[in-house]
Amino acid sequence: MADLSEPNFWTGLRPSTPTNIPYIGRSKKLKKLWLNCGHGTLGWTHGAGSGHAMAQLISGRKPPTDFRFYGV
Questions:
Q1: Cα(72)–Cα(62) distance, rounded to whole angstroms?
Q2: What does pLDDT average to in each consecutive run of 10 residues of the chain (72 residues)?
Q3: What's the burial of 59, exposed, middle or buried (CB within 10 Å: 0-12/13-18/19+)?
Q4: φ and ψ of 31, to 5 deg
């Protein structure tokens, strides 16, 4: 049973990039590191599409959208 005598508030951060364009692709410094982050408040909305694009990139296929990192 939950102890409701003391409320415990929680909020999650929704980090985004300075340009609000998420980082999707291979890291420039660590070639074995792939990034799919920085969606801000649209992470849940864009999750399926960016996950699909990430799978295409990792498997060597080209997604229909150019996912180069802008300003990084």
A1: 20
A2: 73 79 87 90 87 92 76 44
A3: exposed
A4: -65, -20
pLDDT at position 72 is 44
Distance CA 33, CA 55 (A): 14
Ramachandran assignment for 67, one of left (phi > 0), alpha (psi -120 to 50 degrees), beta (any other): alpha
Q: Which residues contact 21 (CB under 8 A, 6 or more apart)?
A: 38, 70
Q: Rounded distance, CA 61 to CA 52, Å?
A: 11
For the chain, domain boundaries: 16-67
| pLDDT value of residue 15 | 84
